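In the design runs reported in the main text, the only information available to the sequence generator was the tokenized backbone. The following block is the verbatim input for one such run; it is reproduced so that readers can re-run the procedure and compare outputs position by position.
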């Protein structure tokens, strides 16, 4: 892969060996207007406008050392729900590269994320960590990434179905409160920065 050669041969020698590098994964909206003739175009949810729009989710995998960022792979994701697919759906031949891309486009974003990482590692890319937002930080995805020899940097996912272990099981709100770096001062308490306002901020 060309990006692996550029990073390993030209960018990595310029940085210190102690510098930490990581893969970065994020998705964005790829909006399309003429969806009736666009294959697998779907209704997708836009997290910025909080509305459903026509098009795809563009899942991008990049590499960074803190100073330089290079995109190294991507995948257009359609909806896995057949009722939300607006464009034509042609027959998929998984033996071809195009067929594999079409099949991958109908998978969940968390599954595609792991496949992009496997492809990057097979092409010669190297990194110490994988960085992404809380939408991808499910326990199963973190375990799948760990099995590839990579560690994860991500926000804790807020979910009533997930319990976190710090000596004993805790939910998101109690874990967040325990992670506060220092207790609030008496001045902050008098200004009302505890109680209901803290509950409103944490959503608990």
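Verbatim output:
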């Amino acid at each position: 892969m060309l990006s692996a050669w550029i990073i390993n041969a030209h960018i990595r020698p310029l940085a210190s060996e102690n510098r930490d590098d990581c893969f970065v994964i994020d998705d964005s909206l790829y909006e399309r207007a003429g969806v009736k003739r666009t294959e697998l175009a779907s209704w997708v949810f836009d997290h910025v406008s909080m509305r459903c729009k026509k098009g795809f989710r563009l899942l991008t995998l990049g590499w960074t050392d803190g100073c330089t960022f290079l995109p190294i792979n991507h995948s257009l994701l359609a909806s896995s729900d057949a009722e939300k697919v607006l464009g034509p759906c042609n027959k998929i031949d998984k033996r071809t590269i195009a067929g594999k891309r079409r099949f991958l486009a109908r998978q969940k974003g968390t599954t595609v994320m792991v496949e992009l990482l496997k492809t990057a590692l097979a092409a010669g890319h190297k990194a110490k960590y994988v960085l992404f937002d809380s939408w991808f930080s499910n326990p199963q995805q973190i375990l799948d990434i760990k099995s590839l020899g990579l560690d994860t940097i991500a926000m804790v996912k807020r979910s009533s179905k997930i319990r976190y272990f710090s000596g004993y099981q805790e939910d998101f709100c109690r874990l967040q409160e325990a992670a506060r770096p220092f207790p609030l001062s008496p001045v902050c308490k008098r200004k009302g920065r505890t109680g209901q306002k803290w509950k409103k901020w944490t959503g608990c």
